[in-house]
Specification:
Blueprint (H helix, E strand, L loop, with lengths): L2 E9 L4 H15 L3 E8 L7 E9 L13 E4 L2 H7 L8 E5 L12 E5 L1 H8 L6 H12 L5 H11 L5 H14 L1 E2 L1
């Protein structure tokens, strides 16, 4: 059985929880896999802690809690500070280099993407940094297919925002570097 555990974390307003929901949707609705999604966030509307935990598996998920993720998608330094120590040995870190300056030496499989800069300066929609990160995740792993993730994004973004979000996804897919 294949089971992959993932943490997507950032600050409130960065869309980490939405990214987790999109990933789960892609796995279940479009790739025919099983998935769970849990989330937590602080009481601040913007700038507080926000995280999503996703498990994607070939069989039903009986225990939905992520304790030692295989993958950490970090959108802020706080995400690294909170979750890098829980990453499994040999796990993958995908990080927004615009928002993170320090990573622990114990983390080896690091993929880097300037998601915030891409979203602001190239897509001209700062709120699409989470979608840039999903593009990077898709390129770096075989967790879900590109077709499935693109379909989930198109289904879940607000009307009139599909093209910008698909541009963000494509740029994340093309520009991620590392490991």
């Amino acid at each position: 059985m294949t089971r992959t555990e993932l943490t997507i974390a950032g600050l409130g307003g960065q869309g980490s929880i939405l990214a987790g929901m999109m990933l789960g949707k892609a796995a279940v609705a479009y790739d025919g896999k099983f998935a769970t999604h849990t989330q937590a966030y602080s009481s601040e509307l913007r700038g507080g802690f926000a995280a999503a935990w996703v498990i994607i598996a070939d069989e039903p998920v009986e225990y939905p809690r992520v304790i030692h993720p295989d993958i950490l998608v970090a959108q802020a330094q706080d995400s690294i500070d909170r979750f890098a120590s829980s990453l499994k040995p040999g796990g993958i870190l995908i990080m927004d280099t615009d928002m993170i300056s320090n990573i622990p030496e114990s983390v080896n499989g690091v993929f880097r993407i300037p998601a915030t800069s891409i979203a602001r300066n190239e897509v001209n929609e700062p709120v699409t940094a989470n979608i840039v990160m999903l593009g990077a995740l898709c390129k770096c792993t075989d967790l879900v297919s590109r077709i499935a993730l693109e379909a989930a994004i198109q289904e879940m973004v607000p009307k009139g925002k599909t093209e910008k979000n698909m541009d963000a996804f494509r740029l994340g897919y093309e520009r991620v570097k590392g490991a």
